[in-house]
Every structure is written in structure tokens, then in C-alpha cells.
Write a structure and sequence with these properties.
278 residues; mainly alpha; Farnesyl Diphosphate Synthase; 14 helices; globular
């Protein structure tokens, strides 16, 4: 497979699975945009193993071994993912830790399906979402990646909490509850209430507490926007605003998260981008 074909396949993956991410980063220069596609393909592969793999424990172990081989300087195979990622690693100065931490985060879903505290939730969110931001920093802001570490982590927190609040019903069908029990207890809302799909004042106040936590981390992440190079500021702001707007979409749907998935339209995304440019 040729390099251009490999990147094109990674682009297809991001456009199919995350139109939000694809649209946010489409304004980057081509070399950076291609690296984003490769990083997303890596993350998607890990996620798909856990959610769709026939033997996810063994498959994730194999994927981790492939990453070991890759980090040692050898391409594990000639799939589009490794061809594109190999080229991106030659262009940008990546740290290996976020890639390993991502796999560790996906492994959590194989052994843990309930969370007791907000701190546990944030630890999970770091592994499956903040790591993506840390992978992207050498691409988006190579000269300031150390200074922007906390910003990337906070944006990941916000995005993952948003995903959780949007996907409550979908996660329940997989017997996964990411809402921390301490937060549920504060609002006198039980696990049985969740399975009964009860959307009352208790549910809304619980949901809004976590939405406020997500918004707090969006604010922390965007606060350092001026440290990003000019060509990365719009994509980073757009990504944060796209995800933040998902929370408003849930509110407009009257918190109907059990049987439908909130989303923002392409037209709304275009509006957000235009407002971000001003």
C-alpha cells in the first residue's frame, strides 16, 4: 500500500466514525491534517477491539505488542494504520506514553463497568480521551507541548464527560455505567432508576452536575489557546465548541439520552466555525 493510499484510508476512518473531529481539524495544513488522521485511526482501532472484537482481551494484547514493535522501530504490518503512523512519527516528535495509556484505558472497559467517584471517572477519561490530546500536541503545537499538557488533559476530560452524558443509553445496553455513584447518590438517583430510564428532576440535576464539570474543563483547556500556533487555534477551539454544543443538544432533546443520540448538524458546526474565526 502506498503512503497516500494509507492516509486516505485513515481519513475515511475519521470521516466515518467522527465527523465532528474530522470537521474540526480540516483547516490544518495538510501534513498536520494527515497526522491527525493517523492518530485517530490508531485510537479507533483500540476502541473497536474492545467494543467489537470477538476476543477483545487477546486482540488488545496483540495490538499492544504491535505498538511495542512499532516503538522499537519496526512496522508491525503493512496496514494503512501503521504505514501512516510510521510516516507521521518521522515528521513529528511524538512521546510514546499517550499511545500506551490509550490502550490501558481501553483495557479498563474489559474489567470495569462501574465508577464510584469523580476521580475514578477522570482517571478513565484521561486514559481514553486526554491521551488523544497529548498525542496531538506534537502535531498542533510542537514548540509548546509541555506548556500545553494541562490544557490537552482538560479538553480530554470535557470531551469524554460529554460523550458519557450523551451515550448513557448506549452504554447501559453494554452494561456500562460511567456516572459516578457518589454523584448519583448526591441526587438520590439509583442504578435501577437508570435501567428504568427515569428522566426526572433528580436525573436532570445529576446530569447537569457532570455537564458543569465538563464545561469547567472546556474553560480550562481553551484558556491556553493563545499558546497554540495560529493554524492550530481554530481547530482546537472548534473541537471544544463542537463537543460543548452536544450538551446543549441533549438539553434541547429534554435529556432524552436513553433511546436517542444527541448530535449537532453540519450547519451548526459551520456556524460555530464562522463564529470562531471572528
Amino acid at each position: 500500500m502506498e503512503l497516500r493510499e494509507a492516509y486516505q484510508e485513515c481519513k475515511t476512518i475519521i470521516e466515518h466514525h467522527s465527523k465532528t473531529f474530522a470537521m474540526a481539524f480540516r483547516h490544518l495544513p495538510r501534513e498536520k491534517r494527515e497526522a491527525v488522521w493517523a492518530i485517530y485511526a490508531f485510537c479507533r482501532k483500540a476502541d473497536d477491539i474492545v467494543d467489537e472484537g470477538a476476543h477483545p482481551v487477546q486482540e488488545l494484547e496483540v495490538f499492544g505488542n504491535d505498538l511495542d514493535l512499532f516503538m522499537s522501530g519496526s512496522r508491525p504490518n503493512d496496514s494503512a494504520l501503521w504505514i501512516a503512523l510510521e510516516d507521521s512519527f518521522q515528521r513529528f516528535d511524538f512521546e510514546p506514553e499517550p499511545f500506551y495509556h490509550m490502550i490501558q484505558g481501553q483495557a479498563m472497559d474489559l474489567t470495569k463497568n462501574r465508577y464510584q467517584t469523580v476521580d475514578e471517572l477522570l482517571d478513565y477519561s484521561y486514559h481514553v480521551a486526554s491521551t488523544v490530546g497529548l498525542m496531538l500536541l506534537p502535531v498542533l503545537a510542537p514548540e509548546r507541548k509541555n506548556e500545553l499538557y494541562d490544557s490537552a488533559v482538560s479538553l480530554g476530560y470535557g470531551m469524554q464527560i460529554t460523550n458519557i452524558l450523551r451515550d448513557i443509553g448506549e452504554d447501559l445496553r453494554r452494561n456500562r455505567i460511567y456516572l459516578p455513584r457518589e454523584v448519583m447518590a448526591r441526587h438520590d438517583y439509583t442504578e435501577q432508576d437508570l435501567f428504568n430510564k427515569i428522566r426526572d428532576d433528580r436525573f436532570i440535576s445529576m446530569w447537569e452536575e457532570l455537564a458543569s464539570l465538563a464545561d469547567h474543563h472546556y474553560s480550562l483547556g481553551i484558556k491556553e489557546l493563545s499558546l497554540y500556533p495560529l493554524n492550530a487555534r481554530l481547530p482546537v477551539r472548534a473541537a471544544a465548541m463542537f463537543y460543548s454544543e452536544i450538551l446543549n443538544a441533549v438539553r434541547k432533546n429534554r435529556y432524552q439520552v436513553f433511546d436517542q443520540r444527541a448530535f449537532i448538524t453540519t450547519k451548526e458546526k459551520e456556524r460555530i466555525i464562522q463564529e470562531s474565526i471572528k
